[in-house]
Write a structure and sequence with these properties.
Blueprint lengths: L3 H12 L5 E6 L4 E4 L1 H7 L3 H4 L11 H10 L8 E10 L5 E12 L6 E9 L1 H18 L5 H16 L3 E8 L2 E8 L10 E3 L5 H7 L3 E3 L11 H6 L3 E9 L2 E10 L8 H41 L1
Antiparallel strand pairs: 1-2, 1-5, 3-4, 4-5, 6-7, 6-11, 7-8, 9-10, 10-11
């Protein structure tokens, strides 16, 4: 019968190529193995962390202790129910990992080791948080029209990791900045460009979300916007007001990013949809105010 150490070695070889993060530790929760996906995710090589406590991989020390009492202990049971834990990488970044696992015991000895399988769910978690913030912005009674649009721009910039956000109005062949978020404040309301010289031209032509994570290697690498501004990443959606195309809501960056997901596409579509509702609501309020002033004027005239 193979030894317990041999079982760990064989198990490690079997799990080495799995896309999900695999960690193994001894009974004291000191790291004995991590697969290639774990090395990529955390930024450590196995040689750097072998024998080190798994606590160094947790963002929160209290969470490390909590998981130790719940599942990663000798009296625990291997648990297939996922728990979302925030982990810490070598470079100081963090990610959310849905974690299953627990102790695995050798039936022929007192040996035990801890097994953990982690799936990076950062996109899912941050999307849920963004949707919660989106609801808070659009339902707040304390924000006026410009405040709401600015809040939506900042929310999108934070979620997508893109520093530039623009809410535009398309007027004929002109692209007019309505509100903007720019790290250097270079985009101001009223600033105008030729629509054909912006990536939003593709949004308008397709009447749908367009996303490019690396323009320089995409089908639009010869676009005049790339030549003029060298924007590598872009995601934008059309803004519809009362059934008519009004403009776009878009985010961009001079740096490339990871490929956009379907969740990203649906999120920018939802933000643009809410922007359209905000414009329509603003127009309705403005129309009511003008009608009220007209009625007051008629009343005064009749007197």
């Amino acid at each position: 019968m193979p030894s317990f150490d041999m079982i760990q070695k064989l198990l490690g070889q079997m799990l080495g190529q799995i896309d999900n993060i695999i960690l193994m530790a001894d009974a004291q929760r000191n790291i004995t193995y991590m697969n290639a996906s774990a090395e990529d995710a955390f930024g450590y090589s196995l040689e750097e962390v072998i024998g080190q406590p798994t606590q160094r991989l947790y963002l929160n020390a209290d969470e490390f202790k909590r998981q130790g009492s719940l599942r990663f202990n000798e009296k625990g049971a291997l648990n297939s129910e996922g728990t979302v834990i925030r982990y810490l990488c070598k470079n100081g970044a963090s990610f959310y990992g849905e974690t299953v696992g627990g102790p695995i015991k050798d039936p022929d000895s007192d040996s035990v080791f801890m097994f953990g399988l982690i799936r990076d769910v950062s996109r899912r978690v941050t999307t849920e948080q963004t949707l919660h913030s989106l609801h808070a912005i659009t339902s707040s009674r304390d924000l006026d029209f410009d405040d709401r649009i600015d809040a939506l721009l900042h929310l999108g910039c934070a979620h997508f990791g893109l520093p530039i956000g623009i809410f535009s109005r398309i007027d004929g062949d002109q692209y007019v900045v309505q509100r903007a978020c720019h790290p250097e404040g270079l985009l101001t309301p009223g600033l105008s460009f030729s629509l054909s010289e912006t990536y939003c031209d593709h949004v308008y032509k397709a009447d749908n979300v367009q996303a490019f994570h690396n323009v320089g290697k995409s089908e639009i690498r010869h676009h005049p916007c790339y030549a003029s501004f060298n924007l590598e990443a872009y995601i934008g959606a059309p803004v519809i007001v009362d059934g008519e195309r009004y403009g776009t809501f878009n985010f961009s960056s001079a740096d490339t990013v990871a490929p956009f997901t379907q969740q990203d596409v649906e999120l920018v579509r939802l933000i643009a949809l809410w922007a359209g509702h905000e414009v329509a609501r603003f127009n309705d309020i403005k129309a009511l105010e003008e009608a009220h002033k007209a009625l007051e004027k008629v009343a005064i005239t009749d007197l």
